[in-house]
UniProtKB/TrEMBL annotation:
It comes from the Bacteria. GO terms for molecular function: asparaginase activity. This is Asparaginase. Residues 2-155 form the L-asparaginase N-terminal domain.
Length: 164
């Protein structure tokens, strides 16, 4: 299986900078590399773009992500994205991309702090793409992979829940 990963940052990637004394979004793929090294039957193309907390993303960033999706050689794509505005970016993408299988994912806690949640969310996206699915824009978080418009972050409890 061939998959393009578009890494846009978000908490999934964050690491603590001991000099500045704060968590930062790095522009590398260290968190992803740790997971993908166990995926022996998948050929990954990884593009690292934007590298922001998604609260700082603009529509210019969203167009950059959309262009990367359109230019991608693979029809199966995982987008690592911050959880706070993944709803905005997935809706933005839906306006322009109809012919690919795209799964957004991310994490509430950085991979560098808790490997379980980030690895689980990414693995669900990967497993979903290995099945026979329709073109669409999906979100893999907290135990489910569904149409991205149906899974919303409940900011009062810090969890993604399905909206009926
Ligand atoms: N958990 C997260 O990813 C939240 C972060 N503020 C973001 O949207 O990038």
């Amino acid at each position: 299986m061939n998959i393009t990963i578009i890494n846009t940052g978000g908490t999934f990637n964050k690491r603590y900078n001991p000099i500045k004394g704060q968590l930062e979004v790095p522009s590398d793929n260290i968190a992803l590399d740790k997971i993908t090294q166990s995926c022996h039957n998948v050929e990954f193309e990884i593009k690292n773009i934007v590298s922001k907390d998604s609260l700082d993303m603009t529509d210019i960033d969203r167009q950059t992500i959309t262009d990367a999706v359109i230019e991608s050689k693979n029809e199966k794509i995982i987008i690592i994205h911050g959880t706070d505005t993944v709803d905005l970016t997935s809706a933005f993408l839906k306006e322009q991309v109809k012919n690919k299988k795209i799964v957004f994912t991310g994490a509430m806690v950085p991979m560098s702090i808790d490997e379980v949640e980030a690895t689980m969310n990414f693995s669900m996206a990967l497993g979903f793409l290995s099945a026979d699915i329709k073109d669409g824009i999906y979100l893999a978080m907290h135990g489910v992979v569904v149409d991205a418009s149906k899974l919303k972050k409940d900011k009062s409890i810090g969890k993604f829940l399905i909206q009926e």
